[in-house]
């Protein structure tokens, strides 16, 4: 009996020693640990996290006190992540800003976590790591400020150029100069393309710096889809774009930004599908959410690219796409807009048969 007890004490001692070493390694790497009780929502955080928030090291910190230190624009997102993690067992990976309660300084942090369950599947603990990413975020903000400044500077000459194109086009039409008219049309198309790219860079800069705010209103989603389809039809004479019949669905969201998401998906379908192909748009409800899909009969996307389509500046580079212009910004912006609506965006595809892009939004 004494032998067993001695063995157990030795095992426990080694486990405690390993735990202490792991804790030291985590804190040396400017990280902390946290855990939440799924039933009581009682929070346990390490000393590193308390220092980040500016809480006394000997204080038992409540969930309410932590939320008060997190900037308000992230409250809804974090509440949704927490409820989904506990209810559905989803892993989480979030970034948000906080205010140090002692110094008033703003810090950027990243928190990753997962739910640990009992043998019968009951959530037992929601825990993970907490990292200080302030320096990286500040670098990103400086970079985005530079992009925004350069983009603004580039827009001014393009606006002037567009005005001169309009003036010259009027003269050419009066003189029935078909060659000049055709040349100006081509120049105008390139100016329009460049303006679109600059606006996309500006939107990335505004999005990352938190200057893009959602202006939610109630509207009929089907009508917005029809508007975007009408605009897309003007840009192509070789595609048939249709909205499949369905029930009228009203949602509360930022109409202009959801419109830009639909416009981007339609533009991609046009660019990446052969001439004369059908593009179908569908809108339907699934439980407490609405799902929009844009299906084309294009070249398709390999499975290894699907998970990265919504990364910033990511493009699928193949011999079939080399001639297609773009910087990999549109899908990134679309993904960010949908995420800020507490929605989801994804794609399904098969090489040679086409792709379908989906996004879902909650019905309030």
Model description:
With 364 residues, the chain is an alpha+beta fold. The protein has 3 domains: 2-132, PAS domain (Beta-Lactamase), CATH 3.30.450.20; 138-208, Helix Hairpins (Orthogonal Bundle); 217-362, Heat Shock Protein 90. It is built from 10 helices and 12 strands. The protein has helices at residues 2-28, 47-53, 63-69, 75-88, 134-174, 178-208, 221-234, 255-271, 303-306, 330-340; strands spanning 31-36, 43-45, 92-99, 106-117, 123-132, 217-220, 240-243, 250-253, 278-286, 289-295, 344-350, 354-362. A 5-stranded antiparallel sheet has the order 2-1-5-4-3, with helices on both faces. β3 (92-99) and β4 (106-117) form a beta hairpin. α5 runs antiparallel to α6, α7 (221-234) crosses α8 and α8 (255-271) packs antiparallel against α10 (330-340). The mean pLDDT is 82.
Short description:
The protein is an alpha+beta fold and 364 residues long. It contains 10 helices and 12 strands.
């Amino acid at each position: 009996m004494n032998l067993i007890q001695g063995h157990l004490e030795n095992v426990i001692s080694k486990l405690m020693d390993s735990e202490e070493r792991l804790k030291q390694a985590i804190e040396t790497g400017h990280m902390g640990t946290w855990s939440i009780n799924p039933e009581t929502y009682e929070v346990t955080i390490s000393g590193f996290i308390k220092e980040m928030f500016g809480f006394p090291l000997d204080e038992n910190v409540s969930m309410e006190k932590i939320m008060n230190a997190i900037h308000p624009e992230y409250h809804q997102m974090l509440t949704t992540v927490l409820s989904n993690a506990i209810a559905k067992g989803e892993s989480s990976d979030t970034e948000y800003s906080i205010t140090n309660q002692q110094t008033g300084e703003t810090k950027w942090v990243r928190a990753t976590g997962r739910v640990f369950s009992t043998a019968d599947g009951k959530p037992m603990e929601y825990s993970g790591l907490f990292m200080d990413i302030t320096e990286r975020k500040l670098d990103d903000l400086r970079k985005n400020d530079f992009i925004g400044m350069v983009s603004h500077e580039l827009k001014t000459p393009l606006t002037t150029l567009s005005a001169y194109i309009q003036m010259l086009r009027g003269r050419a039409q009066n003189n029935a100069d078909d060659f000049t008219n055709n040349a100006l049309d081509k120049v105008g198309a390139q100016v329009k393309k460049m303006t679109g790219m600059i606006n996309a860079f500006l939107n990335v800069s505004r999005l990352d710096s938190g200057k893009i705010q959602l202006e939610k209103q109630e509207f009929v989603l089907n009508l917005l889809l029809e508007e975007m389809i009408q605009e897309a039809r003007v840009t192509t004479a070789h595609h048939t774009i249709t909205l499949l019949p369905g029930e009228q669905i009203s949602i509360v969201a930022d109409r202009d930004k959801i419109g830009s998401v639909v416009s981007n998906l339609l533009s991609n379908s046009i660019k990446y599908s052969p001439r004369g192909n059908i593009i179908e748009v569908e809108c339907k409800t699934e439980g407490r959410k609405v799902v929009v899909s844009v299906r084309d009969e294009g070249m398709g996307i390999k499975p290894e690219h699907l998970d990265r389509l919504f990364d910033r500046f990511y493009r699928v580079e193949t011999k079939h796409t080399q001639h297609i212009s773009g910087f990999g910004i549109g899908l990134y912006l679309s993904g960010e807009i949908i995420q800020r609506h507490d929605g989801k965006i994804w794609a399904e595809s098969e090489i040679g048969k086409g792709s379908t892009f989906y996004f879902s939004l909650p019905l309030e």
